[in-house]
Write a structure and sequence with these properties.
single chain, 356 residues, TIM Barrel, eight-stranded parallel β-barrel, two-stranded parallel ribbon, 16% strand
Length: 356
């Protein structure tokens, strides 16, 4: 691992040179709006190395950012954390993140590095917990090793935004002394912008927003129980959450970033948008498109909204080649009517920037 990190210095000059030749997108100087609109996609790593088309297609929807996610693996009852291992997909390893960053910069894309935990055999990361101080200490040491490795990598690559955790409410609540010190250690090795990805029902309670640059939300808010939600129903559904986010923003004086957002192309897509394990549902493209359009209609006017990263986006040389966009019920908008919705709104963000 250390050897790989050392070569980033060689790669870095090429990465920065490629990025410096591109027009910067997303910066807004208007004081009535957050400093930056982030028009991003959550990129799904591949077992294969990228090519010239991998990130070029992201530009086709007018996106200016990409979220890269180096997964680590654990069991819900074990304090061990595995990452950067031989059998892991290439794109999730250190060498993959280095190459992805280089390729993204060649397309003028900015990057968020967002480490994720994957619980083997299922389970929600927000409920991870241990029953003895010894197990907690082991878990903390292993989690810190994982995140600090990627924080150093992000700093060496000059990655613009780093997310130090994703949906870890029980861990955050149970171990305040660890988190206070851990955030300081991350800041000691990474000098860019910082966030944490709180679940949609967690972000109000995260105690460390003062140490973050963005209030990060995985924004799977329930909006409507309708089979195919209409714009009217979705707009009504957003009102509660807009009020809540406004209050959180005022309390912490930080912009709110949707570290993840998206809807499946299924019936009842806005009822429980976080549910992803039921794959035997019929396709409904209209609901997905309506929900995505309503999100931007309601969020883009908010002065505290900093944009976000749609879940999720596949490279053409990855799993996406096996997706039939006419029957796929997943979150990706690719090849579906929702792709045009995303393209429209991200173009609007770019136009708004150009007017400033």
């Amino acid at each position: 691992m250390d050897t790989i990190l050392k070569v980033t210095g060689i790669i870095l000059s090429l990465v920065l040179m490629a990025g410096s030749c591109q027009v910067k997108k997303g910066t807004i100087s208007n004081n009535s709006k957050t400093a930056q609109i982030i028009d991003g996609v959550s990129f799904v790593s591949s077992p294969r190395k990228p090519n010239d088309t991998t990130f070029a297609i992201i530009k086709n929807v007018n996106a200016g950012w990409v979220s890269l996610m180096p997964y680590a693996f654990c069991y819900k009852d074990s304090s061990q954390v595995w990452f950067d291992v031989e059998r892991q997909w290439w794109g999730e390893k250190t060498e993959g993140i280095i190459e992805y960053t280089k390729r993204a910069r060649q397309q003028g894309l900015k990057v968020m590095l967002k480490p994720h935990l994957w619980i083997i055999r299922g389970g929600f990361t927000g409920k991870l917990s241990f029953d003895t101080p010894e197990k907690w200490a082991q878990w903390e040491a292993n989690y810190k090793k994982y995140v600090l490795h990627h924080a150093r990598l992000a700093d060496s690559l000059k990655i613009e935004l780093f997310c130090l955790g994703t949906e870890l409410e029980s861990f955050v609540k149970a171990r305040p002394q660890f988190w206070s010190q851990f955030i300081k250690e991350v800041k000691a090795v990474y000098k860019g912008k910082l966030t944490y990805a709180a679940n949609w029902d967690e972000y109000k309670r995260f105690p460390y927003w003062a140490q973050m640059d963005y209030i990060g939300v995985d924004a799977y808010f329930p909006l409507s129980e309708a089979k195919t939600p209409t714009s009217e129903a979705l707009n009504k559904g957003w009102q509660r959450w807009l009020k809540e986010m406004q209050e959180v923003h005022v309390k912490h004086k930080k912009p709110i970033l949707f570290t993840e957002f998206g809807y499946r192309s299924i019936y009842h897509t806005a009822k429980e948008p976080w549910v992803s394990n039921d794959r035997r549902q019929p396709v409904n493209f209209e609901g997905q498109s309506n929900a995505l359009d309503a999100l931007f209609q309601n969020l883009s006017p908010q002065p505290w909204f900093a944009g976000g990263f749609i879940w999720k986006w596949f490279g053409l040389n990855s799993y996406y080649r096996r997706i039939n966009s006419k029957t796929n019920t997943g979150y990706t908008p690719q090849g579906k009517p929702a792709e045009e919705i995303l393209k429209k709104w991200y173009a609007k963000f770019g136009e708004d920037v150009a007017k400033k």
